[in-house]
Design brief:
139 residues; globular; single chain; alpha+beta; TATA-Binding Protein
């Protein structure tokens, strides 16, 4: 299982659940006070199996929500996910960041840190970072 955590701020923050649930095939939805849980399952052909993604929205007031995304399953041959869980979490996170931009909401934090860097750094900067690590590391 792999997980990602985002903190989002903005007015009418609860609309983020409706927007996201309108864009995915929700197989399960649970709501209680300040917590909403959505589950999505999809076939992943890379491993000839299914992935289950769980979105947990924990509302921290009127203008802030912490979103936990947990993805698991998709174990193929040799009991490995072949990167499917990380790939799906990245895709979901990119989608949420786009939704926030389109709806005047602000992503104020993303964990893990390396995913945050990949999402907000330009491709040129990411390549430059990789090259500098290869050619300029001291041993």
């Amino acid at each position: 299982m792999k997980n990602v955590s985002l903190v989002v701020k903005g007015n009418d923050i609860r609309k983020v659940v409706d927007i996201i649930s309108g864009q995915i095939d929700v197989v399960y939805k649970f709501e209680s006070n300040n917590v909403v849980i959505l589950m999505k399952e999809q076939a992943y052909f890379r491993v000839k199996s299914n992935l289950l993604s769980t979105y947990i929205f924990n509302f921290l007031g009127e203008d802030q929500v912490k979103i936990e995304i947990i993805t698991g399953g998709g174990k193929g041959e040799f009991e490995t996910d072949w990167g499917c869980e990380n790939s799906e979490n990245k895709k979901i996170t990119e989608s949420i960041v786009t939704i926030c931009k389109e709806n005047t909401l602000k992503v104020v934090d993303i964990c893990p840190e390396e995913l945050k860097e990949k999402l907000f750094k330009s491709s040129k900067d990411l390549i430059a970072d990789k090259l500098s690590k290869i050619f300029f590391t001291k041993e």
